[in-house]
Automatic annotation (TrEMBL), chains A, B:
It comes from Coprobacter secundus subsp. similis. Residues 17-330 form the Enoyl reductase (ER) domain. InterPro entries: ADH-like_C (IPR013149), ADH_N_2 (IPR041694), ER (IPR020843), GroES-like_sf (IPR011032), MDR_fam (IPR045010), NAD(P)-bd_dom_sf (IPR036291). GO terms for molecular function: oxidoreductase activity, acting on the CH-CH group of donors, NAD or NADP as acceptor. Transmembrane segments: none annotated. Keywords: Oxidoreductase. This is Putative NADP-dependent oxidoreductase YfmJ. The lineage of its organism: Bacteria, Pseudomonadati, Bacteroidota, Bacteroidia, Bacteroidales.
Length: 334, 334
């Protein structure tokens, strides 16, 4: 059968463009034993994928030139040669950016329930939600009454991280990039405070005013000047969960900033970079908490869904200009 | 009785000078109940004391203008009004920079044995040795065969940290500031490798060559460009024990450097600033290991002893130009 897929046509230097992606039509052969044929439903775009576009050593191997981009996706089984999955099953897995694909059934995870919308398994009940959970609970380890700052607060991870911090009894300040997001964070997601870093003239002074007791925990999705302004106000024994550095993903040269190690030392602070895969053995614990909080109404969630397979590059690039509130997904309508 | 003491005459901006210190003659009244009169034997000078010369909030309060500097010292009890200590006892404690002083007996720790030279209790068996122990064992948690880099490797802490890393089975690279120290580290203290950062043209390239498997642990006493060169070669899940930042203690303005958080994130690294006081409950564990390694000949130690109370400011300032190998102490001969 015929399918369309999106490949890495060229590696970006600095900010990627639509030209880095190429569309191809391909023929998919019939599934062999143990394989299933899949129809893509939702495809996830995530900031970490920018790293895979470059040819750099990392915890996950780079995309290959001329080969399809792959990432988190939800698909429906349309034909099965496996005992594990049957036609009509919905699955989540690492799939190519393609309208249809073929895969080994044992590489996929079946969605067993209709309690939550399918898209949740790419967001609050997927990698972003688990990332938020372990970053807050294991790295920040917040105590009741502490102050936590979240950068990239309206993104897929930040939105969940801030709410988990609230559930733990923290006073939470979200840093985000538009007035609309400030309102959403405060009015729909219960953040105690939120600011638009793009229009805040004295970011460091404002953080100091909003966090009069200092910053105990910082969940960093962004890096750059925002992080530098926050790190200036750490409390003794502060903890920083280093989850993302989106501000620097598209810089082609080494950026300079104030040296931070002296500040970290003087506060006996901890900075821990992590990826959710480090916590694989505890995924069930995380999922169980996230599901419970969702059902109890303590945790809210939202998605920015872009319609149409062809919009995948557009949606991905939109992550770097802050087009999304919550998880950015592309709905495949073919 | 009469004594001489050294007070903070003025707060330095940037590098301190001898003019920041003032000498005074004082009268010490007879000890009251619970107090002892002390004759200073050895006074410790330590890089962290630079922070206390500034009027900045920290884990330890600043020295007061016009009041004596205080720090680690070993003294002999010459008169006692306490049941805890008797005349002739040797003690270690936080004492003023003075030839004689008076203190509450319960603030002092008695030296019970002659197994080790008294000076060791300000070094390898004092705060520097314990700092090295917990930084390596608790923060770096090295595994057999890993590569550990130590900056400030010939200092009181670095010298011990490097040897503990060797005892744990690490391959150890020491970074230091003179060819003499390079030789000492390699030939007397068993460091696998050592380099003089002042004469190494391409520091980053040299570290890369000497650590072909990358850097798993970094024990940082120095900061600045040396740390930046090392952090460029971290392995996945690398651990950095942030113990000192002597390169920046005397800079009056905010220094700029390459942004390090993206590198830490991409390696899922951990940076943890600490002071030895965080480990108070485990001091006996640390001391017991350090004493055992000393007795077994696995751990070696050296001191740079400057003669004469008047030389205290000189000795302290010498820390910032690398005049010491191992612990810098002043012997009080009055």
């Amino acid at each position: 059968m015929k399918a369309r897929q999106i490949v890495l046509r060229s590696r970006p230097i600095g900010m990627p463009t639509e030209n880095n992606f190429g569309f191809e039509e391909i023929e998919i052969s019939a599934p062999k034993d143990g394989e299933v044929l899949l129809k893509s439903q939702y495809i996830s775009v995530d900031p970490y994928m920018r790293g895979r576009m470059s040819d750099e050593e990392s915890y996950i191997k780079p995309f290959e030139l001329g080969k399809p981009i792959d990432g988190g996706a939800i698909a429906t089984v349309i034909e099965s040669k496996s005992d594990i999955l049957k036609k009509g099953d919905r699955v989540v897995g690492m799939l190519p950016w393609a309208t249809y694909s073929k895969d080994k059934a044992d590489r996929l995870r079946k969605i067993h329930t209709d309690e939550f919308p399918d898209g949740y398994y790419l967001g609050v009940l997927g990698m972003p939600g688990l990332t938020a959970y372990f970053g807050v609970m294991d790295i920040c380890q917040p105590r009741y009454g502490e102050t936590m700052v979240i950068s990239g607060a309206a993104g897929a991870v930040g939105l969940v991280a801030g709410q988990i911090a609230r559930i733990q009894g923290c006073k939470v300040l979200g840093i985000t990039g538009s007035d609309e997001k400030v309102n959403v964070l405060k009015n729909e997601f219960g953040f105690d405070m939120a600011i638009n870093y793009k229009t805040t003239k004295d970011l460091s002074g404002t953080i100091s005013e909003l966090c009069p007791k200092g910053v105990d925990c910082y969940f960093d999705n962004v890096g750059g000047e925002v992080s530098e302004a926050i790190i200036a106000h750490l409390n003794y024994h502060a903890r920083i969960a280093l989850c993302g550095q989106i501000a620097s993903y598209n810089t082609a040269t080494q950026e300079m900033g104030p040296r931070l190690l002296p500040q970290i030392l003087s506060k006996s602070g901890t900075i821990k970079g992590f990826i959710v895969g480090d916590y694989q053995k505890r995924f069930l614990e995380g999922l169980s908490h996230l599901m419970t909080w969702l059902k109890e109404g303590k945790l809210h969630y939202t998605e920015t869904i872009i319609d149409g397979f062809d919009k995948l590059p557009y949606a991905f690039l939109g992550l770097f200009s802050g087009k999304n509130i919550g998880k950015m997904l592309v709905k495949v309508n073919e």
